[in-house]
Amino acid sequence: MRKYLIYLTIPAMVACGSKEPKQSTIAGKFSNATDNTILIVSPNDVDTVNLADDGSFSYKLSLAEPAQIKVKYGRMSNILFLQPGDSSYIELDLNNANQVSFTGSNSDINTNIKSRTNNLYNIMRGWRDLFALDVKDFEAKIDSIKNALMAQSDSLKAKSNELAEMEGNRIRYFLLNIRTQYPQYSAYLQGKSFNPDSADYSFLDKVDMNNGEHLSYDDYASLLETYAELRLQKMKDFATLDSMPAEQRLPVLFNMVDSIFTNSKVRDYIKKHFLVDEIQFGEFWKLTNVCNKYVEACSTPLYKKEVQNIMNEKMKIAPGKDAPTFSYKDINGKEYSLADFKGNLVYIDFWATWCGPCRGELPHLDKLEKEYKGKKIVFVKMSLDDDMNAWRKMVTEKKLGGVQLHADGAWSSDAAKNYQIKGIPTFVLIDANGKIVSPSAPRPSSEEIRPLLDQELAKI
After folding, report:
1. Which residues belong to any copy of the Thioredoxin domain (predicted)?
2. Once rounded to an integer, what is the mean pLDDT over residues 128-141?
3. Residue 373 counted as domain residue
4. Alpha carbon of 310 to those of 3, 281, 420: distances in Å?
5. 3-state secondary structure the chain
6. 439 preceded by cis ω (within 30°)?
7. Separation of alpha carbons 220 and 227, rounded Å
8. Radius of gyration for the alpha carbons in the chain, expressed in angstroms and rounded
């Protein structure tokens, strides 16, 4: 089971209540945008909003209580504190995304939130020094950081009690997530193997793991994921799950989740977490029945919508579908398109120079390429590096073979979006007719790749 621990997240929270809702407005401008959409994430919904040609947008929503709303562009996220009837404006130049300006309602508060968010990011930028501390010093450091940040959030009570509570919770969950990372990264920095059974996660017992309302905090949701996996690993039949195909494993896993959690929204979320992970990184085309049953049983409309949307989108690259076209230049400036390789199998490696697992596959990929030299198969290495110079340097110094291409726009490139790349390395296999064989093909280091290539070559 996969666990992608990314804790630099920005949560949102809304207070409960039954007041008459009022219309609020979020508007702004994203200069130099390469994508034409943003996401507006409110406590109970996620909407896609189109940007105008000049990067401007305007969005209206109904609020009954104060809320923190996330405005997301790609992997960037900014929080806006919005009260019923407010109109807030956000402007940033994506060529210098650290410079964000807020005007309109609560502009001073939103600027303050952005500053605090940057402070949270800075904590994790020094992760090596932090996780290198012994347990006692680490806990003291976290307590010191917490006290300083909580004092800042308490000072917001003069402006809004709701805001102070939201920011306090946001800080608390962020730091709790850092504590969950300590055992694993401390072991890594000491060159030791990590054993979760011997790690101390007792502090999680003091956290309410059945608070459906707090799922609007990204870091609370991440805590739930960690807690669920720790609990599941201790259950009697957990060890047998990895040997099952996903379409059999997930229903068993869902029953285990029901035995751990009591809140229906929390149950829905944890099940969605495991299901979406399999859809994004596994053989999603085999999970139609599991998805349908999840949607039927799920009592949280937002999660139903998310699973349906993700599955519908992934089916666009299911085996047998036309492979998305692409056209990019190699290191010498020669342009290649997918059509150039028609009549051959195409094995695409989506990678980047900074990616450790990607680099780990390179020797295996080189060996595989040499074994299949002269056969009807093309090995395409599609770099998602932002830094083209780093890509050029590695290709040259390592004398990397195959067709070396750089996807313009990196993670925002058409190739990354059309092939729905969520993590790297990702390998894609395309047949001689331009149809997808596997959108998540085995890695070069796996035992499964050669039988698959031989099977497909026999069809040509």
Report:
1. 317-458
2. 95
3. yes
4. 19, 12, 10
5. CCCCCCCCCCCCCECCCCCCCEEEEEEEEEECCCCCEEEEEECCEEEEEECCCCCEEEEEEEECCCEEEEEEECCEEEEEEECCCCEEEEEEEHHHCCCEEEEECCHHHHHHHHHHHHHHHHHHHCHHHHHCCCHHHHHHHHHHHHHHHHHHHHHHHHCCHHHHHHHHHHHHHHHHHHHHHHHHHHHHHCCCCCCHHHCCCHHHHHCCCCCHHHHHCHHHHHHHHHHHHHHHHCCCCHHHHHHCCHHHHHHHHHHHHHHHCCCHHHHHHHHHHHHHHHHHHCCHHHCHHHHHHHHHHCCCHHHHHHHHHHHHHHHHHCCCCECCCCEEEECCCCEEEHHHHCCCEEEEEEECCCCHHHHHHHHHHHHHHHHCCCCCEEEEEEECCCCHHHHHHHHHHCCCCCEEEECCCHHHCHHHHHCCCCCCCEEEEECCCCEEEECCCCCCCCCCHHHHHHHHHCCC
6. no
7. 10
8. 24
Q: Which two tokens stand for residue 6?
A: 């990314």
Which residue from 149, 150, 172 is spatially nearest to 11, judged by alpha carbons? 172
With pLDDT > 70 as the criterion, what percentage of the chain qualifies? 96
Task: Give the model confidence (pLDDT) of 152-197 as tens digits.
Answer: 888 888 888 999 999 999 999 999 999 999 999 999 999 988 888 8
- The total number of structural domains in the chain stands at 2
Let me know: does 175 contact 145? Beta carbons within 8 Å.
Answer: yes
77 in a structural domain: no
Take residue 247 and report the two structure tokens written for it.
């379409």
The residue whose two tokens read 């992934």 is 314
CA distances from 453 to 136, 360, 377, 430 (A): 53, 21, 9, 10
* Domain boundaries, position 447: 327-457
Cβ contact 428:319 at 8 Å: no
Of 407, 415, 416, 405, whose CA–CA distance to 378 is shortest? 405
The arithmetic mean of pLDDT across residues 37-43, rounded, is 92
Which of these three, 274, 291, 318, is where a domain ends?
A: 318
pLDDT digits (tens, 9 = 90+) for 291-333: 999 999 999 999 999 999 999 999 999 999 999 999 999 999 9
The verdict on 272 and 241 lying in the same domain is yes
Residue 253 lies in a domain: yes
Question: Same domain for 369 and 346?
Answer: yes
Query: Is 359 in the same domain as 452?
Result: yes
Which of these three, 318, 349, 380, is where a domain ends?
318
| Residue 113 falls inside a structural domain | no
